[in-house]
Specification:
Oligomer: heterodimer
Shape of chain A: globular
Shape of chain B: elongated
Order of helices and strands of chain A: HEHHHHHHHEHHHHHHHHEHEHEEHHH
Radius of gyration of chain A: 27 Å
Number of strands of chain B: 4
Distance between the termini of chain A: 76 Å
Number of domains of chain B: 2
Largest sheet of chain A: 4 strands, mixed
Structural class of chain A: mainly alpha
Largest interface: A-B, 74 and 61 residues
Order of helices and strands of chain B: HHEEHHEHE
Helix content of chain A: 55-70%
Largest sheet of chain B: 4 strands, antiparallel
Number of strands of chain A: 6
């Protein structure tokens, strides 16, 4: 073999390895879970700060513009707040940002909303950097990766719109689940981000005497910001628990970046990391930080775990057949809309005009839609929807309309009956 | 051989090259941001610094590390027109369950670390907040915690008892006359 062909085969092997690491065809679902969680966290976090908008980020607040000019010396540190001059601009921006965070969480117009959310978050952070801490950098890091990623293709209103559009032509249509090499690359980036974060978090801890000697957890709970009297009483009498908690924290953080990649060890490391963050949330009250970190860890969910979970859910809920009137345009449109939320494809459909049911006769079918259960029981109209809603995760948001005690049935039945009676005119 | 590629294949190769460059660049930035300074990282950092700053990615992830600092508490004293002094501990009013509490605490830390920068603005807002007391001056105070160990706890002492803290007066700022 010549040196040229050796080099060529080495290059080919390297290229194949690069593609295997970064560019396999993978579903986007794990990143969609991160998107929903981070969107919810941002909406809550900044939403709760609304009464303090001008105090935190305004020119008359904690960091007046003249002080800001002294602090910001790097021209790369940017914020839209630097360019605002009138109070209404702060208010308008804040409202738009909260709206975009909600849209980001729901996956509505995700392809451009995600960039507005990133811009907003960076703007708040840069306007008053004294108020930022680690989690703001983590959110930026995860958001930027989500901006690169082709998100909004699953578990989102964008996906609902896509499926609904296909079902308007053919109710039995099922657009293929999205997967792409770029989804894999962005998932990998988020995984590396989490692994790097844990690695440096652990190595910096190992440089410190408090961690090395096993006292760090005690010192954290003594500090006024995290003071927990009950816990301190327990730890003071059982100090070995402080040592165990301190060393376990470091152990998980140092093991994570090395063992999270292997198929056999990933479940344990992922569970350990989530456990660690739940401890931070409960014992240190670092809810926002912990939740965001857990959402970052969602990138390590294997797509096959999610598939298995979906299959298990479908089996547990059992089959559901919705029988509708295929000659009614309104019925077909509303079925297309309803079925678009059924991401797990749990609902079977039957047009009684072309495919009559042996369970429900045509006379009954002309009055209402029916859901037939695996045991042969048939539920009409409002009750048909009411049965389906809690069993299809994509429809859970409808729960308040169908399960508010007394009110749902009191109003639901007459509303459904009126719509069914007038469906030919709708 | 390259000249035999169709325009579609060219497009695919370019997209692949672009995606590879982006993931390589971003991975480099993720690793360089928290890395300690060395001859190698210094060069790489100069390259990625604008990117890290612009997207707010520059953090070393050293949570509670290398050492866990002893805590501190921000307090202030409002001196009213009659010469009476009222002490306030703002942290006592914060709910740990409310997300703004962490921002408020960060604000107090900023005041304690840089009283010359933030003291006047903070005191001015406190003068307004306590206008009903007819304040004539606000004194900003830092309660700096010292070591406190299990033996102290078991003997019934508290972390903020006088023997475990240093009281640092940061600044006294007169309130504007009405």
């Amino acid at each position: 073999m010549t040196s040229a062909s050796l080099a060529q085969s080495a290059l080919a092997a390297l290229s194949a390895a690069w593609s295997r690491v970064w560019f396999q065809d993978k579903p986007i679902a794990p990143l969609e879970i991160s998107r929903m969680g981070i969107g919810a966290a941002l909406l809550f976090h900044y939403g709760m700060a609304t009464p303090y908008l001008f105090t935190f980020w305004g020119d008359s607040g904690w960091l007046p513009r003249e002080l800001l000019a002294e602090k910001i010396t790097d021209p790369w540190m940017q914020s839209v707040f630097f360019y605002f001059t009138a109070p209404w601009q702060w208010t308008a921006f804040h409202v738009v940002f909260l709206f975009c965070s909600a849209a980001f969480m729901l996956g509505w117009r995700t392809s451009w909303v995600k960039w507005l959310v990133l811009t907003g978050h960076i703007s708040y952070s840069s306007r008053n950097s004294d108020m930022t801490y680690g989690v703001h950098a983590i959110v930026s890091s995860l958001l930027l990766i989500l901006c690169f990623a082709p998100i909004g293709r699953a578990m989102s209103l964008d996906r609902v719109r896509e499926v609904r559009f296909a079902k308007l032509n053919d109710l039995k249509a099922h657009p293929a689940a999205f997967s792409s090499p770029w989804a894999c690359a962005c998932t990998r980036l988020m995984q590396i981000q989490m692994a790097v974060l844990f690695f440096f978090s652990a190595t910096y801890k190992l440089k410190g005497q408090d961690w090395w000697e096993g006292n760090a957890v005690w010192k954290v709970f003594v500090a006024d910001d995290y003071y927990n009297g009950t816990l301190l009483n327990l730890l003071a009498s059982q100090y070995w628990m402080v040592n165990v908690a301190t060393y376990t924290t470091v152990l998980i953080e140092i093991a994570f970046p090395f063992l999270i990649w292997q198929r056999s060890t990933r479940p344990y490391l992922l569970a350990a990391a989530i456990f660690l963050h739940l401890q931070f949330a409960v014992l240190l009250n670092l809810y926002f930080f912990s939740f965001v970190m857990i959402m970052g860890h969602m990138s390590f969910l294997r797509p096959e775990w999610l598939s298995r979970l979906g299959v298990a859910w479908k089996q547990r809920m059992g089959g559901m057949e919705m029988i509708y009137d295929g000659t009614c345009g309104f019925c077909k449109r509303s079925m297309a809309w309803f079925l678009a939320f059924d991401g797990l494809r749990q609902i079977q459909i039957r047009d009684f005009r072309t495919n009559p049911s042996s369970v429900v006769n045509d006379q009954k079918m002309q009055r209402a839609l029916y859901t037939v259960l695996p045991n042969g029981r048939a539920l009409p109209g409002f009750e048909a929807y009411r049965y389906v809603v809690p069993r299809v995760p994509g429809l859970w948001w409808l729960m308040p309309f169908f399960y508010t005690p007394m009110l749902s049935r009191f109003f639901g039945h007459p509303i459904y009956n009126w719509i069914a009676a007038n469906r030919s005119r709708l | 051989m390259l000249h035999l590629l169709t325009s579609e294949q060219w497009r695919q190769h370019l997209a692949y090259a672009g995606m590879s460059a982006l993931v390589a660049w971003h991975t480099l930035a993720m690793v360089i941001a928290p890395s300690p300074e060395s001859d190698i990282t210094k060069v790489a950092r100069s390259l990625v610094q604008p990117y890290l700053t612009l997207f707010w990615l520059d953090h070393n992830w050293s949570f509670f590390a290398p050492g866990v600092e002893n805590g501190s508490q921000f307090r202030y004293i409002v001196e009213d027109a009659a010469g009476k002094r009222h002490t306030f501990i703002p942290a006592d009013k914060l709910s740990r369950f409310h997300p703004t509490s962490i921002w408020m605490r960060d604000r107090y830390i900023a005041v304690m670390e840089s009283p010359q920068t933030y003291g006047d603005a903070t005191a001015a807002s406190l003068c307004r907040e306590h206008a009903s007391l007819n304040p004539i001056a606000i004194t900003l105070i830092e309660i700096e915690q010292k070591d406190y160990w299990p033996a102290h706890r078991l003997s019934g002492k508290q972390p903020l008892d006088p023997e475990f803290v240093n009281v640092n007066t940061l600044k006294t700022v007169p309130c504007p006359e009405k």
